[in-house]
Protein 1
Amino acid sequence: MSKQISLENISKSFSTDNRFVEVLKNITYSFEQNKSYAISGVSGSGKSTLMHIIAGLEPQSKGAVYFDGVNIESFSKKQKQNFLRFSVGLVFQEPFLINELSVLENVIVKGLIVGQTLSECKKRGCELLEKVGLKDKIDSRPHVLSGGQRQRVAVARALFNPVDFLLADEPTGSLDQQTGSELVEFICSCKQDCGVGLIVTSHDEMVASAMDCVLELKSGKLEQRIF
Ligand SMILES: Nc1ncnc2c1ncn2[C@@H]1O[C@H](COP(=O)(O)OP(=O)(O)OP(=O)(O)O)[C@@H](O)[C@H]1O
Ligand SMILES: [Mg+2]
């Protein structure tokens, strides 16, 4: 059964340096697992903020996020852990890799946490890294990679455990057209083959054209461009 992430009347404002910024205004929208979504919007329009709220990592000012009908604020600590391990795979705009670990270790750490064996994890990690075009970087440390290579490690890490949704914040932001297309093709194959719902923020028309639904964040509202 296809799961949903539903936003109900989500608003978010920040107050800093005596300035009040209302970034998201009363957004109501449902994302379906069996669809793919691109969210565009100019820099500062609130794309990353929205992604953090969807993942329950940033509190909204008003409204609620529901995962499959359950308000994510009502999750226990254990349910929240499971939500972040098995329901959503996150690719942040900054990849946040652990520099002390190799590329492969960064990717497999989520599997080790949930008790999979090292050999199983290494096998899957190598397969994923091959799919994102980084087979030859398995033993490298993240700090020697380019920004785009680090982003691709983050995509492999996000997809390590089978998840219901991939939330990827500008995953092609640092990639050239060719590498970007290959990454988008891989992400789309995860939807086709494993039923992963895709929510991808991007400025890139190539990403938009690969997704089923194209949304735009504009003046705090989420508008549907193409469905
Ligand atoms: N922690 C914070 N404190 C204060 N303001 C914030 C905070 N986080 C985000 N903002 C503000 O919220 C607005 C939206 O930021 P956000 O990072 O969500 O935009 P974005 O659409 O992801 O931009 P970009 O395309 O540059 O990544 C910006 O005006 C930003 O300055
Ligand atoms: Mg952003």
Note: Helices lie at 47-54, 77-87, 103-113, 118-131, 147-158, 177-194, 205-210.
Protein 2
Amino acid sequence: MLIVQFTDTHVLEDGKRVYGRFDSHAMLERAIDAILALEPKPDLALLTGDMVDRGSAEEYARIKKPLDRLDIPLAIIPGNHDARDTLHAAFGKTAIMGEGEFLHWVRDDLGPLRIIGLDTHVPGKVNGELCEKRLAWLEAALATAPDRPTLIATHHPPFTTAITHVEAWPFAGAEAFEKIVAKNKQIVRIVSGHLHRQMLAPFGGTIASVCPSTAHQFALDWRKKAPAMWTDEAPGFQLHLWDGAKLITSTRAVGPFEAVAL
Ligand SMILES: [Fe+2]
Ligand SMILES: [Fe+2]
């Protein structure tokens, strides 16, 4: 089973660029071109939030066209830049998505991996949260198939990053989440976005991993009190291959690149 994860597409209304610089819409079109050229074809496209920049209906209408080019199922969870109602109104009927207060979902029918989309969004806040209600939902979802290899997708990564400006917005409920993960050995990976660069760390006995953005990348700066900076580093997405026993992940930069024969 092959999953292509892409994230933080941050599409804006026509004519606008992120920070006046990054043409996130054109960058998404290039990422979709690269995804469509993949062989073998992935079984699922997993979009882990911040799909638009301001959460407006105009932005969701604009991102629809590039996403409609995908010829595989699309699953979505919201990020801090999304707006649940507007997102659900635009994609609730066509994408794999939850409904109600939180846009969680769990799917057993996409392949051998069971996939859980967890909604960590808090309206008006940058940070992620798993409150008691959401943790209870997760525990119940995990309990229905405790022996099935499971991948959990969240927008916000649950681990601390040692990046000053990221840690100004700590993930609420991360400790309780980690305890649940540690108890559920069937969880093979937690995949997230939000950081706009590839990163991974251990979490509850599994690996928590972050996919780069298809748009702008965060500059990595581990100096104390370093300011938030963006870079022109190559955008990308990740491929997660379940080989029957383990999940193998590779980060793929979005080109165009030239292939050179050996
Ligand atoms: Fe983002
Ligand atoms: Fe985010």
Note: The mean pLDDT is 96.
